[in-house]
Design goal:
Blueprint (H helix, E strand, L loop, with lengths): L5 H30 L2 H28 L9 H15 L4 H32 L3 H41 L1
């Protein structure tokens, strides 16, 4: 569909973000299963729960705009999970698999953070402050997830380094 106005572009990007939120639960569940780590699995279950709330918030954005989501292919998420499966199959060690899974989760989160920031700026530019506020709550969820994932990754690496240091001292 040809995009003729800034509002149509905004609706298209918002639709893409909404589709991403819809598919996020599936992606988070699959990554958690493939990683086979109880802590990662628990964090991803919580993330899937929050994704449901984000989806409801995005639906409210469409309601405030008086629009419906557009029809898009949504191929980005499928490509991400296909690449994740293929690349994870090449990672052999359990620690390396955990680190890889966390790294990929962080990549996805930062991609979505950039989308939310662009949408917020666009909503502010056209004076749609209600939509902007709702999008900021979604952004806060994404930022929290990215920070939590980074912290979890750091803790995992620190634990591994401490284990190696203890083994070297023994």
């Amino acid at each position: 569909m040809p995009i003729k106005t800034p509002k149509e572009l905004f609706v298209m990007i918002l639709t893409d973000v909404r589709q991403g939120a819809e598919k996020a639960e599936k992606i988070y569940q699959e990554i958690g299963q493939l990683a086979q780590d109880p802590q990662i699995k628990e964090a991803l279950e919580a993330r899937a729960f929050v994704s449901g709330k984000v989806l409801a918030t995005l639906d409210e954005c469409f309601r405030l705009l008086g629009e419906q989501p557009a029809k898009l292919s949504g191929r980005l998420q499928e490509t991400f999970i296909e690449d994740f499966r293929r690349e994870l199959a090449e990672v052999q060690g359990p620690i390396a698999r955990r680190i890889f899974a966390l790294m990929k989760l962080n990549h996805l989160a930062h991609f979505r953070i950039a989308e939310y920031r662009a949408l917020i700026a666009a909503a502010e530019a056209v004076g749609n402050h209600g939509v902007s506020l709702l999008l900021e709550t979604c952004l806060a969820d994404k930022l929290t997830f990215a920070e939590r994932t980074g912290r979890f990754l750091r803790e995992m690496v620190e634990t591994r380094v401490a284990e190696r240091a203890a083994a070297a001292s023994a």
